[in-house]
Amino acid sequence: MNIGQGDALFIESPTGTQVLVDGGPDKNLMREIPKEMPWYDKHIDMLVITNPDKDHYEGFISLLDQYSVDVVLEPGTKSKTSTYAFIEKEIADKHIPEIVVRRGEIVDIGGGAYIEILFPDRDVSGLSSNDGSIVMRLVYGDTSIMLQGDSTSNVEHYLASLYGTSLKSTILKLGHHGSRTSSSEEYVNDVSPQWAVMSSGIGNSYGHPHKETLDTLSKLKIPSFDTCNNGTIVFESNGMNFVLKNKNSKPAVVGCKL
Q1: What DSSP assignment string belongs to 210-245?
Q2: pLDDT for 173-205, tens place per residue?
Q3: How many domains does the chain have?
Q4: Which of 13, 18, 34 is CA-nearest to residue 232?
Q5: Does residue 2 lie in a domain region?
């Protein structure tokens, strides 16, 4: 979703199960959610916090005031910020189960669609928030999306050594907003996506997506799209193929400098 410099991804399964992977950095999430859900629907089945950096969860604070949630998935990385302590208290006060995920777990979201956890595979409380990010794959029939939060090239190399070309997915949601610290050539080549997408804010101070990342995608002949240039990027799957629903989609631009 187009929430600025951060991550937020909405999934709806064939049976209507709704999942939000990350909530972005602020109240922008509450502007975008009504575009994806009917105004009267105030329930979300699952939230996923891929890592405890503000640009991945802060939007959930406003969301939890207006929507009921069944469960929250998180990696087990630690954050000492007062903002993260606040959302943890909100989740606990609302008696929402919070589950620390591990590699090999499968989350059935209905209609043959499921989420497969690839990382973490250990206690990541001592790792950085980026290295401890959840990496997971959304699968429906012959189609799949690799989602990796802010996961770094360190973890990418590790996953490549474990899975190799079994990482292959139809779409790759690039790690860390297209930063050069992610999207190593080895990993992207193993995932071998038809499309790569990233979530970055217009003219962000980090320069995301970085030139090195876009050069890797260009070398591997993978079309790339960013939210700053296209708004919310929408894919729809029938279990055999994905269709990009955005009309006149534009390629990603270094630094989101439009």
Answers
A1: PHHHHHHHHHTT--EEEHHHHSS--EEE-SS-EEE-
A2: 999 999 999 999 999 999 999 999 999 999 899
A3: 1
A4: 34
A5: no
Assigned token pair, 159: 């996953």
Q: Does 49 fall in a domain?
A: yes
Judge whether residue 256 has pLDDT over 80. yes
Domain assignment of residue 104, yes or no: yes
**Would you tell me how many other CB atoms lie within 10 Å of the CB of residue 123?**
12
Calpha distance 201→211 (Å, rounded): 15
Q: Rounded distance, CA 116 to CA 193, Å?
A: 17
For residue 59 the two structure tokens come to: 């939007």
Domain CATH number, residue 200: 3.60.15.10
pTM of the full predicted structure?
Answer: 0.95
Q: Which range of residues forms the domain containing residue 126? A: 8-256
Q: What is the DSSP string of 50-84?
A: SSSSHHHHTHHHHHHHH-EEEEEEE-------HHH
**Beta carbons within 10 angstroms of residue 62's beta carbon:** 16
